[in-house]
Every structure is written in C-alpha cells, then in structure tokens.
Amino acid sequence: MMASRQSENNAQEETSPLTTPNANIARIIPSLPLETRWPPFPLRRYANFWLPEVTLKEGVPGVHSCFEPRPTDVFLASFPKSGTTWLKALAFATLKRSTHPPFDDDHPLRHCNPHDCVRFLELGFNQQKDELEALPSPRVLATHLPYSLLPGSITGDGEHSGCRIVYVCREPKDTLVSYWLFTRKAAPACGVDARSFTIQEALELFCDGRCPGGPQWNHVLQYWKESVRRPDRVLFLRYEEVLIEPEAHVRKLANFMGCGFSEEEEERGVVSTIVELCSLGKLRDMEVNRNGSTRLGTKNESFFRKGVAGDWSNHMTPEMAHSLDKVVEDALQETGFTFSSTT
Predict the structure, then answer these.
(1) Which of 38, 112, 257, 336 has the largest count of CB atoms under 10 Å?
(2) For this UniProt entry, which segments traverse the membrane (predicted)?
C-alpha cells in the first residue's frame, strides 16, 4: 500500500498546477490516479485532491479559460454537504433583498431550490456560461473547488483584485454522514444504484481522502488559511456556530458582502425574516423542494435532511467516530486549525 501511495504521489507531482496549466487539465486526465468506489462518478487525483472526472474535463478548464469574474461577484465555497444549501439561501436572500424583499410571497426561494437560485460555477460550465454572463450584478455563485484550483482572477492572486469568498465548514463526522446519505439518495439521478454503499465503506474512503473534493480537512484548511491572511476577501464560517446564532451570522454575512443592514431594516425585522425564510424547515416544506428537481436532475428533497449538529452518532459507532477523529487530528497537527463541534 505504501509503495502504491508513493507512486501516486510521484504521478501527482508531474501533474500539479505548477507544471500543468489548469485550463489544459483534460488532456492529462487518463494519467491521473483513479478511484471508482465512491458513486456515482469516477474520481481522479489532481493537485492533491480527488475530483470527479467531469469536473476536471469541463469545470476546471472552462472556469480558468472562459469565466470572467466581476469585482462585485460573491462566491460561496464549501466542501460538499457542509451547509451549502443553507448558505446559498441565506446569501441570496441577503444580497438580493432590494429586488426580492424577504417578505414577498413570490420570493424566488418560495418557488425555486437554492441551488437553482445560486449556480455552481464549475458544474456544467460550458452549458451555462452564457447564462452566468447574463446574470445581473452583484452575482452570487457557488463552488466546491479547493481554493488552490480557483483562478487567480477570483482569488486575487497576482495582478487581479479578486472577489469576495464566503466559506462554510462543518465538523467532519457530520459531513461524512450527510455526504453518505446524500450519495445514496442522489446517485440514481445519474443512473447509479448506491443503496449498497455502506457507511463503513464511506468512512474508509473518507478517511483516506478518496471522496469527491477530498481530503475534506485539506479543503477546509486552504480556505481557513486564506481567511486568516486576507479576512477582507475570505469570510470563514462554521456551520455549527451559524446554527446557534443565525441572525448574528446573517449580519456578518451582509457586512462582508458589502450590503449591511440599515437601522430601518433592523427595526422592520428584515434579518429575522431572512432567517425564517431560509430555515431548513421552511425550505424543506416548499412544494418545489418536496417534489421538484434541480436543473441537473437531482431531486430537490435530497438536499434537505435534519441540518443539525451531532447527527453522526445515529449512524456511526463510537469506534468509527474515533478512527475519523484520529485521522483528522493527525492531519491538522501544527496547522493551528481545529474543527468546532457542539458534541
């Protein structure tokens, strides 16, 4: 196993962003390490992360070669199943409240899934690039890409000023359980039956970093480091803390995005109305989220579960939890970062 890992690392060094322009990734995909055990898509290891082949074929090259960010763009970044759906709803309702007041009965979130209100930048990029260009400013877009795979025009590296990035992280055990359950529910939309995919199999792959976007802790760590280095450009949120104080975090989110709430809005209860509109309970009960599907065919109901902290204990044994905790603890040694947890 160690020899195999070493050969993978050697192959990785030859195909890192330092030697392969991200816009040209597609041509070297067949040479990248392959993982097929996490459904529904085959994964390839690139730049030290396991990413779906489809993302490497279209998403990353398209974003790097064709996407033109605007200074007013806001990007919502996350590792999958870390509070992405909730963050999309909160950010959209907050940033767009002048054109879509949260009090309105016809608010987009009342008849559209948050994933249709806030598009993922890299998913089906070639098919949606004209639609993204047509969106009015300020745009709010989402990404699951690691920070190191975002183009400099977004991050502000080099000559670029960059865009605002909001990142939400979640405790690894809850992330794993949510990801595993989502995979089993959503994979059929891609023609894959994942009912036999067990939590034990998911745990072993997750601990090895072999899941879409993994390793999760490295994904989180990249954005956290940037939030420490440039807090004016990267806002780092912890899902568990947002659960405890949603209104305080909506205010923080608004200030960061450059659309802080006025005294009049505070008096009218706009913040609490946004929190209520975007609550997982409210969103889950919307007709569109009970029976509809996203543009990519995934059933909307797949994105709504309990949304609580500590639910991992209902699906993992203490031994399984300990094994994941140990992997994460070892990986984060001397980084200065730890995951917050209310359990």
Answers:
(1) 38
(2) none
Specify whether the CB–CB gap between 148 and 324 falls below 8 A. no
* Residue of 144, 219, 249, 315 marked active site: 144
Q: Residues 210-241: pLDDT tens digits?
A: 999 999 999 999 999 999 999 999 999 999 99
Which pLDDT tens digit goes with each residue over 47-97? 999 999 999 998 999 999 999 999 999 999 999 999 999 999 999 999 999
Write down all domains in the chain, each with its CATH number in brackets.
51-176+214-331 (3.40.50.300)
219 catalytic? Reply is no
Give me the long-range contacts of 319-323 (CB less than 8 A, separation at least 24): 320/199, 320/200, 320/203, 321/173, 323/203, 323/207
pLDDT score of 9: 46
Q: Which residues pair with 164 in a beta bridge?
A: 74
- Average pLDDT in the chain: 87
Q: pTM of the entire structure?
A: 0.88
- In 3D space, the residue among 254, 338, 309 whose CA is nearest the CA of residue 83 turns out to be 309
CA distances to 89, 260, 282 from 274, in Å: 9, 13, 11
